[in-house]
Amino acid sequence: MFTGIIEAVGTVTEVLENGSNRSFWIKSSISNQLKIDQSVAHDGVCLTVDDLKDDMHRVTAVKETLGKTNLATWALYRLINLERSMLMNGRLDGHLVQGHVDTTGNCIAVKEEAGSWLYTFSFPEQFANLLVEKGSASINGTSLTVFNVQRNSFEVAIIPYTYEHTNIHQLQPGSPVNLEFDIIGKYVLRNTQLQ
């Protein structure tokens, strides 16, 4: 379980193909603190650390993960949002994030607004009932408040700190993103559908 508060931004230093799997070596300021078999959110995708060296760690994505996330587009030097799993004795500064991506969306607009940025994202309409105005969503693992929620799009406002300390600054129209919607909303929706 994660909070959507990004700890570090890593850089992809190597991409390896192994059958239908793809492994990524990632260099970051927290890599030397990780352990093999540890769960870490990478752009919102919960992946297991399977190797370590120097200030890098390696994770592997299977075909299922590559097909349902934006990991298939990862290339050398891409910046990756990283978050270790949450501690149960700390504050929940973002929202409950599982690291299980629901779908991918696309950045469709970026507008600078005198010190902040307005991003618009599209998503498949079948997920529209999982977003509410001023609710939370995880975009590439970052917990953000959504507004102007439509049937297949929403907006987020990005403050300078988030812009500088996550990989959102590398997004531009057409960039694919990983989306995870609020787990509480999913349970509420499921409960109402069963009644």
TrEMBL record:
Lumazine-binding repeat ranges per the UniProt record: 1-95, 96-192
An example Gene Ontology molecular-function term: riboflavin synthase activity
Enzyme class, spelled out: transferase
The keyword Transferase is assigned to this record: yes
Residue stretches spanning the membrane: none
Keyword Secreted: no
GO biological process: riboflavin biosynthetic process
Listed CDD domains: Riboflavin_synthase_like
Reactions catalysed, as given in the entry: 2 6,7-dimethyl-8-(1-D-ribityl)lumazine + H(+) = 5-amino-6-(D-ribitylamino)uracil + riboflavin
InterPro entries reported in the protein's UniProt record: ATP_synth_asu-like_sf (IPR023366), Lumazine-bd (IPR001783), Lumazine-bd_dom (IPR026017), Riboflavin_synthase-like_b-brl (IPR017938)
Entry EC no(s): 2.5.1.9
Keywords attached to this entry: Repeat, Riboflavin biosynthesis, Transferase
Domain Lumazine-binding positions: 1-95, 96-192
Function: Catalyzes the dismutation of two molecules of 6,7-dimethyl-8-ribityllumazine, resulting in the formation of riboflavin and 5-amino-6-(D-ribitylamino)uracil.
Name of the protein this chain belongs to: Riboflavin synthase
Organism expressing this protein natively: Lacibacter cauensis
Organism phylogeny: Bacteria, Pseudomonadati, Bacteroidota, Chitinophagia, Chitinophagales
